[in-house]
Design brief:
alpha/beta, 6-stranded parallel beta sheet, 14 strands, 44% helix
Length: 309
Amino acid sequence: MKVGIVGAGMVGSAAGFALALTGGAREVVLLDRDAARARAEAEDISHAVPFGRTLRVRAGDWPELSGAGVVILACGVSQRPGESRLALLSRNAAVFSEVIGHVRRIAPDAILLVATNPVDVMTDIATRLSGLPPGRVIGSGTILDSARFRSLLGGHLGIAPQSVHAYVLGEHGDSEVLSWTAARAGSVPIRDFAAQVGAPITDTVRAAIDDGVRRAAYRIIAGKGATWHGIGAGLARIVRAIAGDEGAVLSVSIVTPEIVGVGPVALSLPRIVGAAGVTADLMPDLDAAETEALRASATLLADTAAQLA
């Protein structure tokens, strides 16, 4: 499958690099307003191909997106000093309007994979602008937050994070909801598993893991300016699920008609992802506090998106 990446900055190039190492594409085309940057990133990534999967990596312009099965949108503008979040969103909406117009004309069958932050609101905008069904406009959502949750739980329990099944719901941001009630290690509820292996999840442990997930981006940004490796790998994982028609369960964001009484709103739930995009939503078990937190997250996102309508 051909994958287009619009925006050859750190996130877009990290996604291309992850695809080169892990597979999921036969060809990757990078586009950027800075054509020299796109060419440099494509050349650099192509030099990793002998160590990873066989694919072609190149820079291009809009016509080279023809035939793409997925187009990753990692483009946007940076916030200006003193600029409000809503003003920034409005400027990024204008960028998306131009970009999506080109993509829909050149690659009308492509699934749009949104990486630009704030990803849930930008997914809502991309859905409106593209006219595509919601299941074909997928935001990376909380796929990275869920990976952080699993990593920290696995570390506490002394098991591989791949054996942990846990999801972060709602916004990719401060209002996100860690679904402790539904979390499992293997097939065992997380608290029961923790007790069996002698690593109980106390209130202190839970608070530390919550902070480790919720504040991770802030710590990384403070240390190196931005995050890109984790989300690049997450975007590559979504592409592989689409390219292989896996029916994989991933926590991604799409416009959802209604969730806990709020909607329509773009937010993350566990969803089934395959060649057609998102084909089904899954609602994990939640306790009363988690349900209320998810409602608050959904309301925040719906209110923000409504201001841009």
